[in-house]
Design a protein that fits this description.
- The chain has 197 residues and is an all-alpha fold.
- It has one domain (3-190).
- It is built from twelve helices and no strands.
- It has helices at residues 3-9, 11-14, 21-28, 33-50, 59-75, 82-94, 97-107, 110-115, 127-135, 137-160, 168-174, 181-190.
- Helix 1 runs antiparallel to helix 5 (59-75).
- The chain is globular and about 55 Å long.
- The model is unreliable at 1-11 (pLDDT under 50).
Amino acid sequence: MSFMTMNMFAPRIWGFDRADAEWRTAREAGWSRADLAWERLMEAGCRSVEKTSDRSLFKAASRCFLAADLLARARFAKGDPRRATAPAARWRLNGTERLRDRALREWGGVAAYIETLEIRPRARSSLFHLRMEARHRDTYHANLRKRLSAFAAETGETLKGTGAHRHASRWRGEKPTVFDDTRKLLSACLLIPDISR
């Protein structure tokens, strides 16, 4: 399927307005159009699922997740955990085991991905906290990696069917304001619809 065809699935998500502040910030941080488009497609799919409990009305979500899946396979490198998220979301919608198997295969390299994350400085509530992070950067990064590993483990349990975790409903609270690799990983962990299988 071409990107032109995917554009029909979600034109407002693919269309980036020059006045779009989030897009400008993401670009300045080094994100590609594909990075933000994938995130927006997954968010739109999760919102569609939240709006209804009738599985027959999941068509809009399914289209968003399919477009995100195609985009991830075309634009994201092997080992990027976002390549696992859209097939996992599609599996949650329709129960197709081959999608879950593909998601599990793609998720297999998440531990190595976490070790190579680029972590950018966060906004801090005070100059004291900013100085503490600067002084103890390695400790802050180690703690953040530990926390991200816990999210990744929960997602792995969900994919294996051994855990009943909330994902999409946690995204709004956990979504980083910084456009770095931690945001990519958290989106991979949390942009899976909260549907019990």
